[in-house]
Amino acid sequence: MAAEQSKPKGPDLARGVPLDDLADGGMIGGHVGEDAVLLARRGDEVFAIGTTCSHYGGPLAEGLIVGDTVRCPWHHACFSLRTGEAVAAPAFNPMSCWHVEKRNGTVFVRDKIEPAGKRKAQRANAKPKRMVIVGGGAAGFAAAEMLRREGFDGDVTLISSDDAAPYDRPNCSKDYLAGNAPEDWMPLRPAEFYKDQSITLELRSEVAAVDPNARQVTLANGRSVPFDKLLLATGAEPVRLDIPGGHQPHVHVLRSLTDSRAIIAKAKTARRAVVLGASFIGLEVAAALRARKIEVHVVAPEGHPLERVLGRELGEFIRAIHEEHGVAFHLEETAMAIEGTNVKLKGGATLAADLVVVGIGVRPRLELAERAGLKIDRGVAVNEYLETSAPGIFAAGDIARWPDAHAGERLRIEHWVVAERQGQAAARNMLGQRRRFSDVPFFWSQHYDVPINYIGHAEKWDALDVEGSIDKRDCLVRYRRGGKVLAVASILRDVDNLKEEAAMERVAPNA
Length: 511
Ligand SMILES: Cc1cc2nc3c(=O)[nH]c(=O)nc-3n(C[C@H](O)[C@H](O)[C@H](O)COP(=O)(O)OP(=O)(O)OC[C@H]3O[C@@H](n4cnc5c(N)ncnc54)[C@H](O)[C@@H]3O)c2cc1C
Ligand code: FES
What we know:
This protein has 511 residues and is of the alpha/beta class. The strands form 9 sheets. A 6-stranded antiparallel beta sheet has the order 1-10-9-4-3-2, with no helix packed on it. A 5-stranded parallel beta sheet has the order 13-12-11-17-29. A 5-stranded parallel beta sheet has the order 19-26-20-21-22, covered by helices on one side. FE2/S2 (inorganic) cluster (FES) binds next to loops.
């Protein structure tokens, strides 16, 4: 028997709803036929858009209208209410939109709007013609996709040392590692996308050198690829464990899909794991391995996990959730050696482990930029357009240090959405659009059923205030310095988090 189709909820928007039921900035979820549709009002204008975010399916009705966009409550993707375009990552696929008619104080949703075609292509004889992107991760993929979305019809070459086409890296430590995400969730786009979009994707290809004067990159195999504009998006690499026994086959790092698969393969038979490092990745790995019923011990030098990033209160709360799920912490401890399957700790204890995962931080991959003579400032120095000290060469993602308008200082941040949005901004600037990158940094992290959303950036703060209750999993935590809110973390206060983001944007508006 066929499963009964769930009917979209709410009013039939084709029959109309009173305009007065829709406050300015408000949204009403309803349906048109079988399609779930969201009606959104901004001033006198009313828009109709699909209800389910094209990233991971977040409920847009619980998001926020900002200008003529709607922001997703889960990971802050931003969609145009006029066209449905995913104007800011992490979503890339557009949403459906419908025509709206207002008559005698009633709003009716009419036909679906046909998706807009590609933007007008740049003329073939217009410069630049050859775009090269080094790095097939968050920033590199987002840049390639945006170049084509913006109608660029010259050559786009995406060179990646990875084995796999661009994929959902954050999931490598979350549902995928826990065994709760199928393989087909991982690619950011199916293989045909690159063919259809004429993006030359060169996998397992290491770029060995960049020559800013000759305008070419040279691959490790000696082949040269010329460029008119270049984007460096080489990301970061995990810090390796430099202790005796740290290079054994059961000792893993986690950066790539290949790394994640190797841990999964080992987890099939492992009974006891030691995670070195109580970073976000270390703790997400702990949660994923607990989901696989593996005994997990976390060893870390700090006394309070995540205190440096989130403050002691939130850090201790996250530690407690992990303990509730059976994770054992060995804090103010470090591993001195791994003898066979025994992890020897500085304090004298020994932990048996048939799987060790090392999550002790990452280093930005700067070698290419350094050797090319680009300006380095604890990262690749870029201006507000993400252009490096060499004209026409851009950098984005984990390697880039940019002047952040909100923080009023130069930042280098290792967040997925920041990298994607920088890739998008860099692509537009490679096309000559001169758009400042001024998005407020955002990241999310998931610990069992507790999601944490964080906007802004606070390396140091002099005041931290909690609105709501951390223990009740319903809070907004503000990090302030000199009275100014630098960052806000939240648990299950998604719309408030979006409002804080919009407030920060108003202070540092997009130029
Ligand atoms: C397991 C895991 C979970 C994470 N979870 C989150 C999360 O929940 N939220 C969040 O905000 N952030 C998360 N992050 C961080 C986030 O993934 C990174 O900030 C983001 O991927 C950075 O994007 P990027 O494009 O700069 O680099 P990457 O995505 O690392 O991509 C770099 C690419 O460059 C390639 N490359 C490097 N050197 C060369 C070379 N010389 N030649 C050719 N190719 C090269 C690499 O193979 C890779 O394809 C996570 C990271 C990991 C590893
Ligand atoms: S589900 Fe909407 S941004 Fe992720």
